[in-house]
Amino acid sequence: MDKKTKLKYGPFGIVDMFYKQNWLEYQARKGLLLANDNLFTCRFTVDEPRDRRYRILPYKPSKTTQEELDLYASCGWHLIYGSGSVMIFYTDDPDAPEPFTDVQSQHKYYRKSLITNFIWILILFAEALFSISRSVQGFTISPSALLYSSADQPLSALAITFIGLPLALLFWFQSMLTYISILNRNRKKDFYGASGFRLKYCVNATFIITAIVLTLWSIIDIPRTMDITSSGDFTQALKYKGNEIVRFSEFDPDTWRTVYKKIEYYNDGKGDMITFDINQDKTLLMPRMVSEELEVDRDTNNDEDTVMDLYYSVNLYKARSSKVASEFMKYNSKNALEESDIKVSNKSLDKYRFDYKGLDYAAYIVDEKNTNDAAAKRDQLLFLRKGSTYVSVSYYGPIDLKSKVGLFAEKM
Q: What residues pair up with 229 in beta bridges, in sequence order?
């Protein structure tokens, strides 16, 4: 008759192998004998309680010879294949010697594997730091700076920033300390000593469950209430009305009529490549975010190249307070400069400020290459703020964007 089996959650990594050994021995004393080990779960066979000993080796079974396995078996140690690159041995003989009775054999099976994992964790940590460099503004880690620079991000992103990242950092540090401790003990004969497992179990389980929850939350947390990519359906996009944002049809009516005719023929594959997007979002710190983007790319003889003929993007942010809008504007304007072709240092942004009645802040930046030619197309940026309302405009075309400040200011 087949014995009953039981599946248990085992949140232990390779670095926690000594704690996992204690946990497995604790289960054996309750009558749960390990039958199979997976990534985060272990399957046990329900049997009589036993004082069973376990030893976990961070060593791939494929690198172990049958002669070595036979040697362990002759000493009373039996193999259970673990997940990926580990082997688990057990014995019910209280007098069975340790699998490795000398430091040299310990080095062969533990040191190389642990050092390799240690290096990989360092590399992953360094990569994570570089990936968040934009959010922390050049590694200047400040909670308030992180909050304001992420004001346009959904609540799940804030949770990842202020809960997930600190938790991951703490988890990384304790993993590093554990690795260093094991490598230090690797020089000694009492290599297998580790007290308890409950604290380690709770720490790992908390981190893994939190990571899963935040990941799932970030996937399903879609704050966007409207997202129309009108390259597929221009008619639906044009029906959307937003009285607080200056549409391109108001900004440049003559050009808009020409573009609109091109839009009508776009689906037939005629004319220029046109993208016209309208989005409306909301986040915790920004209850209202609206944007319109129009881009017209002219085909060239080279199939791989296109030339931008027109670009217009206006973004409206209505923050919960003027403080949020003011701080967010600092980071948003720097990012806009980095994404544009305008060669202006972030530090010199204040030189482009100008006074405008009724506005708390106004800055205009233009590509210096074409400023002397009024008819030339050039990249231009405009940043405006009034109280808790902030507007940023990116434009490539012949119109002087600064001459349109009144159009934007009127709706703020």
A: 277
The total of other beta-carbon atoms located within 10 Å of residue 269's CB is 6
pTM of the predicted model over 0.85: no
* Segment 50-57 mean pLDDT: 88
Side-chain-side CA neighbours of residue 181 (13 Å) = 14
Cα gap 74→270, rounded to integer Å: 79
- Per-residue model confidence as pLDDT tens digits over 81-94: 766 677 888 999 88
Give the number of other Cβ atoms within 10 Å of residue 213's Cβ: 14
The single-letter code of the amino acid at 139 is F
d(CA 31, CA 51): 9
CA–CA gap between residue 343 and residue 338 (Å, rounded): 9
Structure tokens, 173: 């540090």
339-356 pLDDT, tens digit per residue, is 777 777 666 777 888 888
Closest CA to 310 of 255, 370, 365, 262: 255
Q: Classify residue 87 as exposed, middle or buried by CB count within 10 Å of its CB (0-12, 13-18, 19+).
A: buried
Q: 3-class secondary structure for the chain?
A: CCCCEEEEECCCCHHHHHHHHHHHHHHHHCCEEEEEECCCEEEEEECCCCCCEEEEECCCHHHCCHHHHHHHHHCCCEEEECCCCCEEEEECCCCCCCCCCCHHHHHHHHHHHHHHHHHHHHHHHHHHHHHCCCCCCCCCCCHHHHHHHCCCCCHHHHHHHHHHHHHHHHHHHHHHHHHHHHHHHCCCCCCCCCCCCHHHHHHHHHHHHHHHHHHHHHHHCCCCCEEEECCCCHHHHHCCCCCCCCCHHHHCHHHHHHHHHHHHHHCCCCCCEEEEEEEEECCCCCCEEEEEEEEEEEECCCCCCEEEEEEEEEEEEECCCHHHHHHHHHHHHHHHHHHCCCCCCHHHHHHHECCCCCCCEEEEEECHHHCCCCCCCEEEEEEEEECCEEEEEEEEECCCHHHHHHHHHHHC
Confidence of residue 52 (pLDDT cuts 50, 70, 90): very high
